[in-house]
Amino acid sequence: MNDEPSAQDPVGEDARIDALDEKLKALRQREDARNRPVGGAEADENYRVGNRVLAELLGGLAGGLFLGWVIDRFAGTSPWGLLSMMFFGIFVGFRNILRITSKRPE
Predict the structure, then answer these.
(1) Of 12, 22, 48, 67, which is the most exposed, with the fewest CB atoms less than 10 Å away?
(2) Maximal CA-CA distance, the chain
(3) What is the mean pLDDT of residues 1-28?
(4) How many whole angstroms separate alpha carbon 90 and alpha carbon 69?
């Protein structure tokens, strides 16, 4: 009689394969967590900064156009008051955007 298992018996699990399966499972979980979309405070902060940048740009342009129109209306310098104040408003808007973007995150 032969003490060796026959070829038809199922092969037993190897401890190395189990360890590899556990490592692979842990790596997949870490990769899924890393690739999960960011939500919450960080995304909200970026959204707020983007809205503030847009508001500064549009506000500077609109404010410059309005002040230029008022100057042209009362001083009769059309269209030079409007053009000069429009460019001044754009300059102020970009200056404010540079201030916003140069702040260090908290």
Answers:
(1) 12
(2) 118
(3) 75
(4) 15
Burial of 77 (0-12, 13-18, 19+ CB in 10 A): middle
Distance CA 46, CA 52 (A): 10
For residue 30, the one-letter residue type is: R
DSSP 47: H
Q: Please state, in angstroms and rounded to a whole number, the distance separating the CA atoms of residues 90 and 99.
A: 14
Q: Whats the size of the chain, residue-wise?
A: 106
Using a cut of 0.85, tell me whether the model's pTM lies above it: no
- Interatomic CA distance for residues 85 and 77, integer angstroms: 12
Residues with Cβ < 8 Å from 71, sequence gap 6 or more?
77, 81, 82, 85
- What the block records as the tokens of 82 is 């409007």
pLDDT digits (tens, 9 = 90+) for 44-101: 888 888 999 999 999 999 999 999 999 999 998 889 999 999 999 999 999 999 999 8
